[in-house]
Write a structure and sequence with these properties.
Distance between the termini: 69 Å
Order of helices and strands: HHEHHHEHEHEEEHEEEHEHEEH
Number of strands: 12
Number of domains: 2
CATH architecture of the largest domain: Alpha-Beta Barrel
Structural class: alpha/beta
CATH topology of the largest domain: TIM Barrel
CATH class of the largest domain: Alpha Beta
Length: about 290
């Protein structure tokens, strides 16, 4: 066998291997995505004609070649469940404007529900968890274009760090965004340093960590006061919910007006504010979100 023939055979083997690998990756990706949690609006809420839908975003990544390649090769939640690409985010904000959806702030929602127990019409509140750099760099300019208010919840002890697949914004970036956004931007606390799992369970939900969680909550408010000049009346659960012990503690905090969860649903009365439901926005949930808003 000549040297040239050996090269051809090796090339054919490499191409065949890469082709097989591509097919396998695509099949695994399709399987993983097909078995993922359904983020769509629950059927019981689809018939509601009045309410406030609180939308929850995490990342708004730019549509570059690297992001698209990784999206095609991995079922990673950070890219599929907790990310909306910038092009899609622009379309979503334009959709709200086109359909004349009333986008209100968290504070406006609280005031509205204090005045009457039921909501008339359909409203949207925009919220962002963690405050990574894509909020500052990608999402904020789009919302500024439409003059939309938004709430961003911050892990006060982790700013500027690489965390869970995202680059968190620094305090300098956050405060600059707050200055340029003014009253359109509200800040919530997302714990100080307890946004992590222990043996698959949110650390703050473990009973032995309850005292640490109470201290962590106090620290997060202290940091907020030092950095912004005031504490926050908004708490956002990491991982979406808390135990009854944690819930009872938060509900007795006199400064808190809203406790955000990731419970699927729509806000219809002020009774919801102690466990405020939100809709995670991603490619699988937007269809049901947009259908309800029409």
């Amino acid at each position: 066998m000549t040297k040239t023939m050996r090269k051809w055979i090796l090339g054919i083997i490499v191409v065949a291997f890469l082709g097989l690998l591509t097919v396998t990756v695509q099949k695994n990706l399709k399987f993983e995505l097909g078995n993922r949690e359904n983020f769509a609006l629950a059927n019981s809420d689809k018939q509601l004609q009045n309410g406030i839908m609180v939308l929850c975003y995490h990342r708004v990544l730019d549509d570059n070649a690297a992001v698209k390649t990784i999206e095609d090769l991995t079922p990673n939640n950070q890219l599929h469940a907790y990310n909306v690409n910038l092009s899609q985010f622009k379309k979503q904000m334009a959709y709200l404007a086109k359909h004349h959806i009333k986008v209100i702030s968290t504070a406006q929602m609280v005031t509205m529900l204090q005045k009457h127990r039921t909501v008339h019409g359909k409203y949207v509140v925009l919220t962002f968890d963690d405050i990574d750099r894509t909020l500052v760099e990608n999402a904020a300019p789009v919302m500024k274009h439409y003059n939309y208010p938004f709430t961003a919840s911050i892990i006060t002890g982790n700013t500027g760090r690489y965390f869970g697949g995202e680059q968190l914004a620094t305090w300098k970036q956050i405060l600059q965004l707050k200055r340029t956004s003014g009253n359109r931007m509200e800040l919530g606390v997302h714990t100080n340093n307890m946004h992590y799992l222990e043996h698959g369970t949110p650390a703050f939900n473990l009973r032995p960590n309850f005292t640490a969680f109470k201290q962590d909550f106090a620290t997060s408010q202290k940091v907020m006061l030092e950095k912004t000049g005031h504490t926050s009346d908004i708490f956002t659960y990491p991982y979406g919910s808390g135990t009854s012990q944690v819930e009872n503690f938060l509900m007795t905090q006199p400064t808190l007006k809203v406790i955000y969860t990731l419970n699927n649903g729509i806000v219809t009365s002020r009774d919801n504010l102690s466990l405020t439901p939100r809709m995670i926005v991603n490619n699988s949930s937007w269809k049901s979100i947009s259908q309800w808003l029409r």
